[in-house]
Design goal:
alpha/beta; Aspartate Aminotransferase, domain 2; 2 domains; 7-stranded mixed β-sheet; 14 strands; globular; binds 4'-deoxy-4'-aminopyridoxal-5'-phosphate
């Protein structure tokens, strides 16, 4: 029998994508499924961006491009990074990837040797641990708590450092919590990284989805002393409703980025020019549509949180960013469905899809076993109808009698 690698070959499929796909299949079969699993805006990519893609096709931009990405987009990325506080950022320190995901993956792949440790604050986006595992690294989790707004405790990060620590992954605003890490926490993490010579991968893909009074500040702006160790990851997928175009980028120290480019030249060649020219239009065009989409998310956040908090024994903190909420549903994990104990969030999420026609992602995959994640990147109507079904379903469960 074929022996596969236990690291890359042993990975479970991404549940965010798998559950989203299952919900789409149900929808195609005519079932009204609430799309709370999808980490993607329901909006269409703005017209002027789609036109730029069409124009790129008309202009015949259909050949291999440079492995690092096209010069115009790298220059535009360097400019946005410099404007958001990455002083001295230049195009040759950027790499364009086919989405933010491969940028994260290649960033880790060129950094880690087998057994190297990466500190990941939890709850965390499900793909970070899998990427670390795929390239032979070891995850060291540092927990954060809902009752403390999921703020990272820098002392806990300090305590997690060992001689094998290579990197820390930050994600603010974060998926799945929506938490925005306070400036002073990020500053302190920068000091810790600089002190110990640890790389910081700051995934800022939800930058524009930071809701007032919270404000977004790039880790690069807050921690200039750590610039030599910082890889900022960002992209157009979320802010410009461009998930399917697959364009993201990284910006960081030249030696780190150049190594990523060399790996990308073998593993990907480079991202398509067509999508890069659309992303360039997004970065250089008017921001009204982006801002309008973000304003809609704020309204939807209110509707989602109010509806969830109205369900008995569900507690849903109101996050400052991204488009997810992570309510505590632990009271229902002790319940049974038709006599069968539920026990964990994976089972609860499966039952919600089947019986409430609500697609949600279990907290288990985000190191948040007490929760399920609801995305509110869908219409208010979907939210109202879907949460009403979830509430009815939860009310139908048999719960242990309380003393
Ligand atoms: N980082 C986070 C935190 C995300 O939620 C996502 C979701 N897709 C990504 C990165 C990946 O973005 P992309 O679609 O550009 O690969
Ligand atoms: N990041 C999104 C999510 O968490 C999209 C799916 C994925 O890439 O994981 O749902």
């Amino acid at each position: 029998m074929m022996q596969f690698s236990p690291s890359a070959g042993g990975l479970a499929e991404s549940q965010t994508l798998a559950i989203t796909a299952a919900a789409k299949r149900m929808k195609a079969d005519g079932i009204d499924v609430a799309p709370f699993a999808a980490g993607e805006p329901d909006f269409l990519t703005p017209d002027f961006i789609r036109e730029a893609g069409i124009q790129a096709i008309r202009d015949g931009r259909t050949k291999y491009g440079p492995a690092a990405g096209i010069a115009e987009l790298r220059a535009a990325v360097a400019e946005t990074m410099a404007a958001s506080g990455f002083a001295g950022m230049t195009a040759d320190r950027t790499v364009i990837g086919a989405g933010a995901k491969p940028v994260l993956y290649f960033g880790l792949a060129v950094l880690l040797e087998p057994g190297d440790e990466v500190i990941i604050p939890t709850p965390c986006w499900l793909s970070y641990p899998k990427m670390v595992q795929a390239v032979g690294g070891t995850c060291v989790y540092v927990g954060t708590r809902p009752d403390q707004g999921y703020v990272i405790d820098p002392d806990a990060v300090r305590a997690a450092i060992t001689p094998r620590t290579k990197a820390l992954i930050l994600n603010s605003p974060g998926n799945p919590t929506g938490a925005v890490q306070p400036d002073d926490v990020q500053r302190e993490l920068g000091r810790i990284a600089a002190e110990h010579g640890i790389g910081v991968i700051s995934d800022e893909i939800y930058e524009h989805m930071t809701y007032a009074p919270a404000r977004f500040h790039s880790f690069a702006e807050l921690a200039p002393d750590a610039h030599d160790l910082t890889l900022i990851v960002n992209g157009v997928s979320k802010a410009y409703a461009m998930t399917g175009w697959r364009i993201g980028w990284g910006a960081g120290p030249k030696d780190w980025v150049q190594r990523m480019i060399r790996l990308q030249s073998h593993a990907l060649s480079g991202p398509p020019d067509i999508a890069q020219l659309a992303a360039l239009a997004a970065l250089q065009g008017p921001t009204e549509e982006r801002d309008a989409m973000c304003a809609r998310f704020v309204e939807r956040r209110t509707v989602m949180c109010e509806a969830l908090n109205a369900i008995p024994d569900v507690s849903c903190p109101v996050p400052d960013g991204a488009f997810y909420v992570l309510p505590d549903v632990s009271a229902y994990l002790e319940a049974s469905y038709e006599g069968e104990p539920i026990g964990n969030s994976t089972k609860l999420a499966a039952l919600m899809l089947e019986h409430a026609h609500a697609a949600v992602v279990p907290g288990d995959v985000f190191e948040a076993p007490y929760a399920v994640r609801f995305s509110y990147a869908c219409s208010q109507d979907d939210i109202r109808k879907g949460i009403a079904r979830v509430a009815d379903f939860l009310a139908s469960l048999q719960r242990p009698a309380t003393a």
